[in-house]
Amino acid sequence: MAASLTWPAMFRAIRVFGRAEQLPRETVEAYFRSRPWGSRISAWTSAQSQPVEDRAALEQAYAAYAEKWPDHGNPDDVPVPDFWGGYLIHCDEVELWGGRRSRLHDRFRYVRVGDGDLADPTSWELSRLQP
């Protein structure tokens, strides 16, 4: 699995390589219930990444779900959608790219060399890459 986040106007990018693991349903449900009420309603409102007629259609759908499941301040006021889930990315390589107009870009690559997470410096080898 590979992912890239790019901010062209800022000359910045992050590339991630690794393995994606679908989260267990109980983890997904616990996370969903920890989110604010409005975010839980939005999960039902949006068929994520699908075309929508206009903003008014989104607002109308949101209002309908908000009426169906009002906010009583409980984590289970809004049921967890069957279609809602998540993934955990196990990174093996991360590259940070900082562009420069001169094309002498800064590129740093972290490659996994141990079992720790991204916060454990002994689990990663850092190298500077040529532009």
UniProtKB/TrEMBL annotation:
Cofactor entry: FMN
Positions of transmembrane segments: none
Cross-referenced InterPro entries: Pyridox_Oxase (IPR000659), Pyridoxamine_oxidase_dimer_C (IPR019576), Split_barrel_FMN-bd (IPR012349)
Keyword Glycoprotein: no
Domain Pyridoxine 5'-phosphate oxidase dimerisation C-terminal residue range list: 84-131
Keywords: Flavoprotein, FMN, Oxidoreductase
Stated family: Belongs to the pyridoxamine 5'-phosphate oxidase family.
Name assigned to this protein: Pyridoxine 5'-phosphate oxidase dimerisation C-terminal domain-containing protein
